[in-house]
Amino acid sequence: METVRVSTSQHVDIDYPVAGLGERVAARLIDFGLFIVVFLIFLLFFSLTGLINSGRMVIIVMLLIFGAGFVFYDLICEIFMNGQSIGKRLLKIKVVSLDGAQATLGQYFIRWVFRIVDFTLTSWVGALICVAVTENKQRIGDIVAGTTLIKTVPRTQFQHIAFHPTIEEYTPVFDTVNEMSDRDIELIHEVLNTYYKTHNTDLIYQMAARVSTRLSITIPEGMNELEFLKTVVKDYNQITAKI
């Protein structure tokens, strides 16, 4: 499976799967369907209020406003919704730079401009073929802008929550874990979840080394790196719950 490597603020690399052709098309259809619904609501509103009979100029102005919204929809959404439109958010995919960083304003603009090539001039054929054959599932606009779409993973299930309920009889092993922040613990939990899915032991070794350095502690004899990270998370939950 194609992936994009994202470097976190702690300089730990995590691979995110690239969104495929199906997710892209489905997100686009959702966005297009949204505009159809909005257009039908406009027609119903005009009919009920009698504006549809108030003159050609009113209709032209309203159509121009609707058309401008349709044209600039993707650009505005991706800029203000962190690389997502409503369809992309529902499908849990987002636009990122190929190096894993958040796409820049210029990259959003370039991929938006090239929608003319991807969708209008080639009638979607150019975009579909390009996404199907490129390594990172990019349409033409993505290739020029240096972007692609990745899948995002929701954290709504209990096993995905970094902060579990505390255990009354549990005694923390590492007292210095309170020097860490909630974001640090979330990152450790994200690394653990990624390890369970990919079995990439390098992630565990890398994160364990950084955490032990951050806390100025040595991993106890008989405790491996995976157990160490799980213990740090458990200790943090226990200690911070009492603060």
What would a concise description of this structure say?
With 243 residues, the chain is mostly helical. 58% of the residues lie in helices and 8% in strands. The strands form two sheets. It has a two-stranded antiparallel ribbon with strand order 1-2.
Annotation keywords:
2 domains, two-stranded antiparallel ribbon, mainly alpha, elongated, 4 strands, 8% strand, 58% helix, 243 residues, 10 helices
Question: Gyration radius, to the nearest Å?
Answer: 24 Å
Order of helices and strands: EEHHHEHHHHEHHH
Which regions have little confidence, pLDDT < 50, spanning 5+ residues? 154-161
Structural class: mainly alpha
Outline type? elongated
> How many separate structural domains?
2
Number of helices: 10
Main sheet characteristics: 2 strands, antiparallel
Helix content: 55-70%
With strands numbered from the N-terminus, the spatial order across the biggest sheet is 1-2
Mean model confidence by pLDDT: 85
Task: Tell me the number of strands.
Answer: 4
Beta content comes to 5-15%
Distance between the termini: 43 Å
Q: What does this entry look like structurally?
A:
With 243 residues, the protein is mainly alpha-helical. The protein folds into two domains: 3-151, no CATH class; 158-241, no CATH class. Helices cover 58% and strands 8% of the residues. The protein has ten helices and four strands; from the N terminus they run E-E-H-H-H-E-H-H-H-H-E-H-H-H. It has helices at residues 21-49, 56-80, 86-91, 105-113, 115-121, 125-133, 140-145, 182-198, 201-215, 225-241, and strands at 3-7, 13-17, 93-97, 147-151. It has a two-stranded antiparallel sheet. Strands 3-4 form a two-stranded antiparallel sheet. Helix 9 (201-215) packs across helix 10. The longest helix has 29 residues, at 21-49. The radius of gyration is 24 Å and the shape is elongated. The two termini are 43 Å apart. Residues 154-161 have low confidence and may be disordered.
